[in-house]
Prior knowledge:
By secondary structure, the chain is α/β, with parallel strands linked by helices. It contains 10 helices and 26 strands.
Amino acid sequence: MRTARLALDPAFTVGPVPRRLFGSFVEHMGRCVYTGIFEPDHPSADEDGLRTDVLELTKELGPTVVRYPGGNFVSGFEWEDSVGPREERPRRIDRAWRSVETNQFGLAEFDAWARKVGTEPMMAVNLGTRGLQEACDLLEYSNHTSGTKYSDLRVQHGSKDPFGIKLWCLGNELDGPWQTGHKTAAEYGRLAAETGMAMRSIDPDIELVAVGSSSRSMPTFGAWEQTVLELSYHAVDYVSLHAYYQEHDGDAASFLASAVDMDLFIDQVVATADAVRAKGKHTKKINLSFDEWNVWYQTKPHHGPGVEPWDVAPRVIEDEYSITDAVVVGTLLNSLLRHADRVHIGAQAQLVNVIGLLRSEPGGEAWKQTIAHPFEQVRRLATGNVLQVVTTSDKYETAKFDAVDVVDASATYDDETLTVFLANRDQADSASVEVPLRGFGVDRVVNAKYLAAAEGQDRHTTNLENHSAVGLRTLDDVTVTEGLATVVLPPLSWAVVQFRKA
Ligand code: AHR
């Protein structure tokens, strides 16, 4: 049996749980939109062509914010193609994913979908092939009441009320050579500053996200954030981070430690943003928007062999997630919570089919992938303040990160309920975790669930064949004695335990 103990106290908080931390992402890519959220011919489709089976599952997940319409797609997107009468909308080449975009789902459809889900839209503008003027036109179309060219066009298109979008991404991954309109940090920093200032002059209430690094392993990481923020600090509110993790060559031990990289990535972006703040004598802080993160097996082809170019909604990167992937996602959520003082926005990429929390088949069923469970539980149960957690844990060796804690943890407290999110990274042994309850006024377990392999399953089991094969089960092995709880986690598991006063 492995062991760990947590140190936590209600007085030591990281900050309030940022509700926007539990976001998702809908890109015009593969089958995320078409046959994902939108499929007018599906038996469950509603009057807007939305799949109500996917809509209901999305509501259960409850993403608090959803980024749209890309991703790499946005860097070639001409938003004007996606508005107005559907029969007049052009089919266009999507260079990013080498598919054909029909534009049958566009801005008004996304607005209607977001309202039905009850989520906040986060819109990205194209700073790849387009610039300041088009971004301002889109903002005018979306947020200006009426009486101007683009606001009147929106009204004429049937949306009398403005969309009222507050969160705007100033482009996507422009540090990446794969991005249409790839830029140097200096080129992008100026463009972000000028576009941001112009957009704010139209709507001073918007919040702006500058493009950060596409991953911590980018050769320009660090220098990119520094230059971009030196040039745009006055104009933006957040800088973005993107990270995707996968298991390489069967090295599950390193893969399970992915949150070590995420912790480091966040700490280093915070350090860079704060150094620019000091050097520029700025008072405001730039916070972080981790607006693409997930497990993604990038070694499989995105397009090319097996995927014909210029299809509508081809099957691309439809990763099927295992129990191991769900445990990693649980630890990545812990990392985001641990940094809740500075990471104020998160978006797990993507919502459906494309590296999706959900999967759906054209004309067929929709279901939750394994990774949806930790996402949904943390979104529902993390309330009040995030606590500082000091974990003293047995360690295990990894090829990538040296010795890593077997047990990974985060916790929240809302004056009534103490909630602890735990992962056991050991693939063979259970882990016994001590959680001190003194000072919280709680003494009873009100909820304890876990996700791990059940009989007949192993770490590779997914929900593809049996859509509910991997789900949450009641964790019985939790005891409370004299202000100390002991939680026994099965091997390779993710768990949530909640305590309240009897
Ligand atoms: O989420 C899939 C892709 O990953 C996005 O389009 C891009 O921004 C990132 O590289």
